[in-house]
Amino acid sequence: MDNFKKKFVEEAVDLIDGLEKSLLALEESPDDMTLVQQVFRVMHTLKGNSGMFGFDLIDAFTHEMETIYDLIRNSKLKVTREVLDVTLASVDHLKVLLNEDNYNDPLVQENHAELLRKVASIINADMDVEQVVNSPEEVKVQEADNGESTYYIFFDPIKEIFNNGTNPLFLLDELHSLGETFVYAHLNKVPPIAEIDPELCYTYWEVLLATKADINSISDVFIFVEDDCSLDIQKISETNLLTHKSFINKVKELAKSQRDVGFNTIQNLVKEVSSRSINEISTQKKKEKSATKDASISSIRVSADKLDMLMNLVSELVTTQARLSLFAEENSVPGLMPIAENVQKLSRQLRDTAFSIVLIPIENMLTRFQRLVRDLSSELGKEVAFITEGADTELDKTIIESLADPLMHILRNSLDHGIEEAAERKRKGKPTQGKIILKAFYSGANVMIQISDDGAGINPEIITEKAIAKGIISADRKLSKREVLDLIFLPGFSTARTVTDVSGRGVGMDVVKRKISDIRGEVEVDSDLGAGTTITIKLPLTLSIIDGLLVKVDETHFIIPLSVVDKIFAVEHKKIVSTFNNVVVLDGKQVPFFYIRREFDHPEAEQVYEQVIVVNFEEKSVGLVVDTVIGEYQAVLKPLGKHYKNQDMISGATILGDGTVALVMDTNKIIKLFANHEVFTRQQTTDN
Amino acid sequence: MNQENLSKINSYLSFKLGDEEFAAHVGKVLNILEMTKITEVPKAPEYMKGVINLRGTVLPVIDTRIKFGMTATVYTTNTCIIVLDIEMDGETIQVGALVDAVQAVLEIDKNQIMPPPSIGSKYKSEFIEGVANIDEKFIMILNMDAVFSSDELTNLRDKTEETENTVDIEEVG
User: Fold this and answer.
1) Distance from CA of B39 to the nearest CA of A (A)
2) Would you call A663 and B52 a contact, using CB atoms and an 8 Å cutoff?
3) In contact, A270 and A246? CB cutoff 8 Å
4) Which of A29, A200, A508, A566 has the most CB atoms in a 10 Å sphere around its CB?
């Protein structure tokens, strides 16, 4: 496929996505004319583009669909379920048609013919319906008058006008700056060339000016030549006559006949045309308006490769900047420090901007889900409302890409196993229409995505039974509710009694969990039997650079993500080593802590004070004891590589200003790993 | 240069671990670095010495001696890190290998290389490509992909040993 076609397909995919979105919105509010307009416009663009690039099938097909929406636009057809069904099916078909290889597939051809038949039947059905004719009044009302009036200006300077340094053309330019002009220069006073005095002006002008300015500002243009010319300024119409073609043509004809048109003639002309002109003008005006609206560019298309490159460069810059800062600190060269600080500030801003470029709102993938819920719920014969909140929450595009599949799966589960059938819901005293809510919101440096349904919920007993039957847990083991629910994330676990087409094949939640942890996310499930299930996904905002706290333990530098750091305390070494239960009292509260040196098998060092960094861990505070705190650091995350894939308490590494490597701690995993149950149960009892 | 051309070259880099001499095909060697500060990764297997900064990327460094069942490397002025290209699960990745000393680049003709002795050898045959007799010395030519891609502690010596360094996560969670 050549480049242009590729561009077209890329654009078409976007257009079709937008179309789908508008159509789903239209389903919610079928009377919204702006939505109809939107649908129509997209189809029109699609038609135009496909025709241009030789996708004739799409061209012809969209033409038919466009006809439907043209009829709706003109209130000749109502938006019905049937119309939407056919359109959505057509949208799917369009996606297929975008791949030219599909043209010869008999299935596609059959589908194509079928859809065309359906579309035709909708269009024809309408023809019998009474035609609603647009009344002319309606048009008049819409003829948004933007306050432009048309003036007639007759300007004949005296011959010696050049003598005081006036260039009449500048005056005309000035008129032009006031609004739209039609200028006619009369040359009939110009003598034969032998008699011409180059210092004299022989020309005079007639000007038609359409402007919002009043007559005074027009005469202001001529304020310095008032005495040196004959001037006549008259208002001829309250509207912009210059947009009226036939009027202008008449004026042109008159002017060509080499004599002055004159105010009276113009006025007669105006009278003649104005009666029939107004409608024409207003429609023209409207067209112009919509054209200018489309022309303003608010976003551009950039290839993902370029963005990746930009991100890489920014990462390199941040690393280099760290070296510069270090260098400036070590060498007290006058003036170097301010420069280094400035570079730091700028690179931070650059980093944030570059990040915001790759962040896209999750809205982009919601359309797909809306469609899924719509199609699936009708397939399953369930009534389901899909509600989204926080669609403008932004995430790294790579995260969004890898998130679509897991979310799709969760939604399928909710639809298939969660939401009950209408009859059963009624029996349970729930509204017959089920509800699935997808909520996205920020929480610190994380984005949370919550999918909750008001369906049947998960029965922990069935899960336990199943887990015991499959030998995943032993029968005598007592598990908390959370632990039981977590079992559904294990491979090969499915509670669905029957395997359906949609879900319940036993591959599922474990894949969801794995995919989400691939993008450094976490997933949790909470469920009340009979009341519904909520699945919460916690995701990092971005994958490549984090703000961190640089600390040192023995000879190793570590980065603790700033997002989890709460407070830092200096605590005497004695207090750290002498406690039995690893708890220190900070700010009057008991805080469990981990002595990193001990946990990471470094030798214990005798120093007077230890630094306790209090971090948030599952809504609790936990202290991590390190030797020294060096300061804030922007860490460009680099993978540790395959050889360290089992070291998941280190989420990556970063290169420091002096070229050494610092390790980025995943505090959640570290604490989970070190947490011995006693510490926590003890803390919980003291809390209560 | 592509892999095909590289494999035609008969150059090998020889290095020392203790008193024994080994060699690796130059096509696998990217770089030889002087000893630098290695950042230790906590709770990693003992032979995984840590990571270093190789021109902006993070390079894992393996203590070859431990991997081969010897005592841990003692750093001297001769200690070097050989940066290698390793095939691992179908991907090419880079690792650093700590060695006691880098010796020389040798031209070893294909017919000078003998197959590894199958019986009575001190080393596992899957890691040895062959043995070359150079100046009355036996040099073990290693299959670097096999040696460095295995993520378990694989003793080059022909005996299996359980590692105590793997952390049992199941028990804690």
Assistant:
1) 6
2) no
3) no
4) A508
Do A187 and A54 sit in the same domain of this protein?
no
Domain range annotation of chain B = 3-172
pLDDT, position B159: 42
Q: Do A601 and B42 touch (CB under 8 A)?
A: yes
Burial class (CB in 10 A: 0-12, 13-18, 19+), A468: middle
Q: Which domain holds residue A75?
A: 3-133
CATH number at residue A245: 3.40.1310
CATH code at A420? 3.30.565.10
Q: How far is CA B84 from the centre of its chain?
A: 8
Task: At A2, list the tokens.
Answer: 């050549």
Comparing alpha-carbon positions, the chain B residue that sits nearest to A486 is B173
Mark whether A439 and A464 lie in a shared domain: yes
- Cα separation of A121 and A342, whole Å? 68
Q: At what angle do helices A56-73 and A81-97 cross, to 10 degrees?
A: 160
Closest by CA to A207, choosing from A161, A175, A239, A241, is A175
Going by C-alpha positions, the residue among A520, A545, A512 that lies closest to residue A648 is A520
Contact residues, chain A, for B172 at CB < 8 Å: 672-676
Same-domain pairing of A355 and A368? no
Per-residue pLDDT of B67-116, as tens digits, reads 887 888 888 889 999 999 888 777 788 899 999 999 989 888 888 888 87
- Three-class secondary structure assignment of A529-546: CCCEEEEEEEEECCCCEE
Is A644 in Cβ contact with B41 (below 8 Å)? yes
Rounded to the nearest integer, the mean pLDDT of chain B is 79
A231 and A328 share a domain? no
The amino acid that residue B54 corresponds to is L
- Tell me if ipTM is over 0.85: no
* A391: DSSP letter: T
pLDDT at B122 over 90: no
Instruction: Name the residue among A641, A660, A663 with its Cβ closest to that of B37.
Output: A660
Q: Determine the pLDDT at residue B160.
A: 38
Contact residues on chain B for A650, CB-CB shorter than 8 A: 41-42
Do A595 and A459 lie in one domain? The reply is no
**Cβ distance of A655 and B51 shorter than 8 Å:** no
How many angstroms separate the CA atoms of A35 and A27, rounded? 10
Choosing from A482, A514, A540, the residue where a domain stops is: A540
A576-603 as b/e: b if 16+ CB within 10 A = beeeeebbbebeeeebbbbbbbebbebe
Question: How high is the pLDDT of residue A31?
Answer: 79
Given a cut of 50, the residues of chain A with pLDDT beneath it are 128-145, 287-295, 497-506, 677-688
Residue of B58, B89, B93 with shortest CB distance to A661:
B58
Q: Is residue A142 part of a domain?
A: no
Instruction: Report the pLDDT value the prediction gives residue B102, as an integer from 0 to 100.
Output: 92
The answer to whether A372 and A411 have CB atoms below 8 angstroms apart is yes
**Minimum-distance CB partner of A641 among B39, B53, B60:** B60
| Closest residue on chain B to A664 (Cα) | B41
Say which CATH superfamily domain B3-172 falls into.
CheA-289, Domain 4 (2.40.50.180)
- pLDDT band of B29, cuts 50, 70, 90: very high
